[in-house]
Design brief:
The complex is a heterodimer of chains A (377) and B (521).
Chain A lengths: L1 H30 L4 H13 L2 H26 L7 H18 L5 H30 L3 H21 L35 H19 L1 H11 L1 H6 L4 H28 L9 H4 L2 H11 L7 H22 L3 H44 L10
Helix pairs in contact in A: 1-2, 1-14, 2-3, 2-13, 3-7, 3-10, 3-12, 3-13, 4-5, 4-6, 4-10, 4-12, 5-6, 5-10, 7-8, 8-10, 12-13, 13-14
Chain B lengths: L15 E11 L2 E12 L2 E7 L5 H8 L7 E6 L2 E3 L4 H7 L1 E4 L11 H6 L12 H15 L14 H14 L4 E5 L7 H16 L3 E6 L2 H7 L2 E6 L2 E7 L5 H9 L19 E9 L5 E10 L4 E5 L6 H8 L5 E8 L2 E2 L5 H6 L2 E4 L3 H5 L6 H5 L10 E2 L2 E2 L1 H14 L16 H13 L5 E5 L7 H16 L3 E6 L2 H7 L2 E6 L2 E7 L5 H8 L12
Parallel strand pairs in B: 3-8, 3-9, 6-7, 7-8, 13-20, 13-21, 16-19, 19-20
Antiparallel strand pairs in B: 1-2, 1-4, 4-5, 9-10, 11-12, 11-14, 14-15, 17-18, 21-22
Helix pairs in contact in B: 14-15
Classes of the chains: A mainly alpha (377), B alpha/beta (521).
Chain lengths: 377, 521
């Protein structure tokens, strides 16, 4: 009975962690003079309250999922890609450059080409830290973060220079591109903002699952991540697979950037930060992947949950009129609670085992009252 | 209670320790099933059993690392609860682990003092520690230099430091966990002299082992555990090796003894003047040369850390050589990648099973295909053929008698013996020309050891050239047709099995030049 209780608890733990984060958020809401029940009601309604709300949630979840499945590949190879932001930017820039260069191309041709070039550009951007790690043993966490900063500056440069909207001139020019031809818009699935990108992301997530578990390349990526020494023994060229996995990881982030441009924004604008384009999906995708147990298929519902949180929080803010910073804090809380719940679960399992042991020891000690016939030495 | 007797070390004596009805459960396993065990002062009591029989679990409960689910531990008539190793140490128990718990870059005295409070607050009191070490060393005849650094000491000396460390902490009862695994035969003799003296002085010693001749040589009583149960406690003088082996395994064993002398014109594996560096960049192999014929087992004996893993890795293509040549059937293999070596027909059972040979998180079948992924049976155009993989894995599991719930079970849930059988199945099923078997039965129970030995002999009969690298002389003597000895990265000599004696091989393992050929033992 004890076992079944604890296993149920473990399965529900991510949900419980989310609720706990919201409970802490409720305290903050009360301190700000807002009614948490009203606030969270608004959050739920904002995320799931209507077809449009649901569609927005899925639109928001799409880049999280794409980045997330890339993260799954990298993590499975034992490398950590924090460069999703920069890789998304590269995907966005390259795809919009293509679309702006050939405004008269047919959409049926341009859309796949644009997504492909975004995929490739992200892959190359991700390949740089991969190569540096394989060749010079540069820590990929540092190099991917640094490449994010470089990507932002590249975006600022291009949006102020070659890619700037032709009618923006002079010192007051807004650094933004022209709108892409409407023929290039990703098809809508239903009469909402929901676009084809979401479907592509889900199909790719399933595809990556097959890639990782049903192909020799995926097998080798996972082998390298679990045990590099044994992989070498098995004849696998470990460095090659580290580079490949970081490239693939970057490629999916790049695709996320391209889909963001072709499916949602249709132009690019910069305020000098990465988040203005990515919506921090390059980071949140990591959380979604971790929440999804680093399994591409598990990342699908995980991304959906985080998408819901992001969309719902907007509504919450509008309804109860709290500072925007609270929303950021709330998201942060959920991330911290969910990610640490796994650690906590392990500790808790240990504590539980020790407690059982102590109970048994106490029971054994009670039995020891019967006298022992052995004499002392 | 009467006043406790004092040992020569100044520590109070433990006259009698009893463990009564000890039960310890782990998920799915009854590790100790109502085990009774006792040890007295003046006694060496051997605890014998296969891997997984529950020896370590029992002793870890005595040392406070685990807590019994049932049963009690009684010191000189008083039941005690031991919550932690600190409690155990306070009661006078010392444990010498198989892998020494010493810091290489510190001196002997610093290691002994490590973790203990100083009498001078935050300042060290190493002069006091040094004095006490010298006292203990003199009383017990342990020649240990307190100011020497651990890295300067031989393995045998390091073991003496461990004993001093335990005595310093007040040990009257010592648990020795497979203490001879790392020693040369001569060091083992030395070690037994020390232990015998300690027992004569009134210490109680528990000697965990699976080496029958050592148990027979110097213990007073033997307790055999099997499947978590105490199969029996006997006086050593009343038993013999075969009886003990039967108690351990539960059935009579076949001992392999059918070596032969092979004359071959053209050796299958030829290693010429091979040199290589260790991970730390110092020479690990120096001009190593030997040959192995088709259908021959060449045993490579040597104490741990004399270049054995490096040799295996160089042949397997996992470590570059600095000079020399490796030939297989007159094909040059020097400088090949691991994949090329596999393709040339070299099978390799690596020493570090869990680090190199297997991916623990991977399933049995994923580990079985590890080195043959691109073979047509397993994959085509990068797509794995799951049907074939499952079928072939099931076949191999059956053929090689691997005990596993299913082929999808992760390797980490398998016992050491069964995990090793997975490697064996993978490597031998390839019909290799050359088999490098490094410590193939280390940490493996007797039943699986017997099985692995049979398969290696069977492989010899099919014409495979086998290089058997082992620190277990019993194994070397049981399987080899010729025996080579490696010391400090050099081959000390190669002798025919029929001319080899434990003593002659032991001397070479300690670095002596090979003696004149002696008559068979």
């Amino acid at each position: 009975m004890r076992i079944s209780w604890s296993s149920i608890f473990d399965a529900l733990l991510p949900v419980i962690a989310t609720l706990a984060a919201l409970a802490v958020g409720a305290v903050m809401l009360i301190l700000l003079g807002a009614n948490p029940l009203v606030a969270y009601g608004a959050l739920l309604e904002g995320a799931f309250g209507s077809f449009n709300a649901l569609a927005d949630t899925i639109v928001k979840a799409t880049p999280l999922l794409l980045v997330g499945i890339g993260i799954c590949i990298a993590f499975r190879a034992g490398v950590i890609n924090i460069g999703g932001e920069g890789q998304m930017i590269l995907g966005g820039l390259s795809s919009i450059a293509l679309g702006l260069a050939f405004p008269d191309a047919p959409g049926i041709l341009m859309i796949p080409m644009a997504l492909l070039i975004g995929f490739i550009a992200g892959g190359l951007w991700g390949g740089i830290p991969g190569y540096l790690k394989a060749r010079f043993n540069v820590n990929e966490i540092l190099s991917t973060i640094m490449l994010n900063v470089i990507a932002v500056q590249l975006m600022n440069l291009l949006l102020r220079g070659p890619l700037i909207q032709p009618n923006q001139k002079g010192a007051a020019a807004i650094p933004q591109t022209a709108r892409l031809s409407a023929a290039f818009d990703l098809p809508r699935l239903v009469p909402t903002r929901l676009h084809l990108g979401a479907l592509i992301a889900v199909i790719l997530a399933i595809g990556v699952y097959f890639f990782l578990w049903r192909t020799t390349i995926g097998y080798r990526i996972r082998a390298v991540g679990l045990n590099a020494a044994a992989s070498r023994y098995a004849g696998i060229k470990v460095n090659r697979y580290i580079v490949l996995s970081l490239m693939l990881s970057g490629a999916f982030s790049g695709l996320a950037g391209a889909i963001q441009v072709y499916g949602v924004n249709h132009f690019m604008i910069t305020d000098g930060s990465a988040a203005s384009f990515t919506g921090s999906a390059g980071f949140n995708g990591i959380v979604a992947a971790l929440f999804g147990q680093l399994h591409p298929v598990g990342t699908i519902p995980a991304s959906f949950l985080f998408g819901a949180l992001l969309v719902g929080a907007n509504k919450l803010q509008r309804v109860v009129q709290v500072p925007a910073a609270l929303i950021t804090a709330l998201n942060g809380l959920v991330v911290v609670f969910v990610v640490s719940s796994e650690l906590w679960r392990r500790k808790n399992a240990r504590r539980r085992a020790i407690k059982e042991l102590e109970e048994k020891l106490a029971a054994a000690a009670a039995k020891e009252i019967s006298p022992q016939p052995e004499g002392g030495g | 209670m009467t006043q406790k007797q004092i040992l020569p070390s100044g520590n109070p004596r433990i006259d009698r320790l009893e463990m009564q009805g000890i039960v310890k459960r782990f998920p799915g396993v009854l590790a100790n099933d109502h085990v009774n065990f006792d040890v007295n002062a003046f006694e060496v009591h051997a605890l014998l059993g296969e891997n997984g029989a529950g020896k370590s679990t029992l002793m870890k409960q005595l040392y406070g690392l685990y807590h019994p689910d049932q049963g009690q531990i009684i010191f000189d008539g008083e039941p005690r609860l031991i919550h932690s190793p600190r409690d155990a140490i306070n009661l006078g128990i010392g444990m010498i682990h198989q892998h020494f718990m010493l810091v290489d870059s510190l001196t002997v005295a610093e290691n002994v003092a490590l973790g203990l409070p100083s009498t001078r607050g935050i300042m060290t009191d190493l002069d006091r520690v040094t004095k006490r070490i010298c006292e203990l060393a003199e009383v017990y005849g342990l020649d240990v230099e307190p100011d020497a650094y651990i890295w300067q000491l031989s393995v045998g000396q390091q073991q003496k430091v461990e004993i001093i460390k335990a005595l310093y902490r007040g040990a009257a009862l010592l648990i020795l966990d497979e203490p001879t695994a790392v020693l040369t035969p001569q060091e083992v003799d030395d070690f037994f002299v020390t232990l015998t003296k300690m027992a004569n002085d009134g210490h109680a010693l528990i000697f965990i082992s699976h080496k029958l001749h050592e148990v027979m040589a110097f213990t007073h009583r033997v307790t055999v555990l099997r499947d978590g149960k105490n199969v029996g406690t006997v006086n050593t003088v009343d038993t013999n090796k075969n009886l003990l082996a039967e108690m351990m395994v539960g059935r009579p064993l076949n001992f392999i003894r059918n070596y032969k002398t092979i004359k071959c014109g053209n050796p299958r594996l030829k290693v010429e003047n091979l040199s290589a560096l260790s991970d730390r960049g110092v020479p690990a192999l120096k001009n190593v040369s030997f040959e192995v014929c088709a259908g021959e087992v060449l045993g490579l004996a040597g104490v741990s850390g004399n270049g054995q893993p490096e040799l295996a890795q160089v042949i397997a293509g996992l470590r570059p050589s600095t000079s020399g040549k490796i030939m297989i059937d007159d094909e040059n293999l020097t400088g090949s990648t691991p994949m090329q070596v596999i393709d040339k027909g070299v099978a390799y059972i690596p020493e570090k099973r869990n680090v190199e040979g297997l991916i623990k998180e991977f399933s049995v079948s994923e580990n079985l295909i590890m080195r043959d992924l691109d073979q047509e049976i397993y994959s085509r155009n990068a797509f794995l053929n799951m049907g074939n993989i499952a079928k072939r894995s099931a076949d191999l599991v059956k053929t090689f008698n691997v005990k596993t719930p299913s082929i999808d079970t992760p390797i980490k849930s398998l016992s050491g013996g069964n995990a090793q059988k997975v490697i064996l199945a993978r490597e031998i099923s390839r019909q290799p020309k050359v088999l490098i078997a490094a410590q193939p039965t280390r940490g493996v129970d007797i039943g699986a050891t017997e099985y692995i030995h049979e398969r290696i002999i069977e492989q010899r009969e099919t014409g495979t050239a086998t290089l058997l690298i082992s620190e277990d002389l019993d194994e070397i003597f049981a399987l080899s047709d010729r025996i080579a000895v490696i010391f400090h990265g050099e081959i000390m000599g190669v002798v025919d099995r029929k001319d080899a004696t434990l003593q002659s091989i032991g001397l070479m393992m300690a670095g002596e030049q090979p003696p004149e050929t002696k008559t068979a033992e």
